[in-house]
Structures are given as structure tokens and as C-alpha cells.
Amino acid sequence: MARIVKNHSLGKEEAKKRIANVIPEFANRYNLNYRWESDYVVNFEGSGAKGQFVIMDNSIEGELTLGFLLRIMEKQIVDSIQEKLNEVLG
Q1: What is the pLDDT confidence band of residue 69, given thresholds at 50, 70 and 90?
Q2: CB–CB of 35/23 below 8 Å?
Q3: What pLDDT does residue 70 have?
Q4: 45: which of 7, 35, 51, 74 is 20 to 30 A away, CA to CA?
Q5: Could you tell me the domains of the chain?
Q6: CA dist., res. 23 & res. 4, Å (int)
């Protein structure tokens, strides 16, 4: 399991607004289904991957579990997600 943490100073609402705009992009790129479990928790799942992002006041924390075939690309996937979070959250 990979953990992704991105600190921010935007507050929960602004961080959610920005993340909500990129979740569909992530879902499309990695062929995932997603659903908001609550206002600040989004779950995603697809062929060979599942996980969750939790939006907090000063950070976004994610867990990503990859199946056997995708584990080979774990570093590239995590780096790609981290790069997008850096871009969106500053």
C-alpha cells in the first residue's frame, strides 16, 4: 500500500473544491470508479487499484492499493498523483 500526503494551507473547503475538479481526471486516466463517501472523503476502485483520499484542514492524505500488475508502476503512479496535487494545491 502506498501513502500519499500533501500539506496545504487552503482550508478544507477550498482544498475540496480543487480536488473535486481533478478526481474525474484521475478516474479517467487510471480507469477508476469513484464516489464521495462524505463531504471530505472520496473512495476509488478499478481493475487492479483501490484507495481513498481524505481532505483535512491542512492536508490531503491518500492510500492506494495496487494489484500485482500495477505494483510494478507504483512509483510512477504515486509520483504522477503527487505532481498533480502539488500543481492543484500549491
Answers
A1: confident
A2: no
A3: 87
A4: 7
A5: 2-89 (3.30.310.80)
A6: 15
